[in-house]
From TrEMBL:
This is DUF3429 domain-containing protein. It holds the Pfam family DUF3429. Keywords: Membrane, Transmembrane, Transmembrane helix. InterPro entries: DUF3429 (IPR021836). It comes from Sphingorhabdus contaminans. The chain crosses the membrane at residues 12-36, 48-68, 80-102, 108-127, 139-157.
């Protein structure tokens, strides 16, 4: 049997866990660029913002997929799709200060970090109207606190 496809104690496939946790690597690398105060500090900050915003938008896509699994008669199905679009709109709104020449990236990193940390609360609501895999919430909390926390830390360093 291939170990990659087996499930762990969290009941999620091991490959999902490995891929999920490895998704923290780009933010860790960006933090290294910022904390070493190298010539690539600004690149690290910009990459950290971009990656956090992309992942936050990605969560909306996951929520959309969960909404597709909701029972068609479920009254929550409509709000699920509104929730699913919110991360992309929020991420875009936090990008506007850069376009308009306002203070950036500190405040944008802070907002994305806060939203990432709070995002499992949306999953918590979703579990009442959609089927979420066993172990999903544990993984979501770990990844959201990890990525959101790193993003907030980088906001302070900006």
């Amino acid at each position: 049997m291939n170990n990659i496809s087996t499930t762990s104690s969290s009941n999620l496939p091991q490959t999902a866990l490995i891929a999920g946790y490895s998704g923290l690597l780009p933010q860790i690398l960006a933090a290294i660029l910022v904390f070493t105060d190298s010539e690539y500090r600004w690149t690290g900050l910009a990459a950290a913002y971009g990656y956090a915003a992309l992942i936050f938008s990605f969560l909306g896509g996951i929520w959309w997929g969960f909404g597709m699994t909701a029972r068609k008669t479920d009254a929550a199905a409509g709000p699920i799709f509104i929730l699913a679009v919110a991360p992309s709109l929020i991420a875009f709104a936090t990008y506007l200060p850069w376009i308009w020449g306002w203070e950036w990236p500190g405040p944008s990193l802070a907002w994305i970090g806060i939203f990432l940390i709070a995002s499992p609360l949306a999953d918590r609501w979703l579990q009442h109207c959609c089927h979420l895999p066993a172990g999903w919430m544990k993984l979501r909390w770990h990844l959201s606190l990890g990525l959101g926390g790193l993003t907030l830390l980088l906001a302070v360093m900006a």
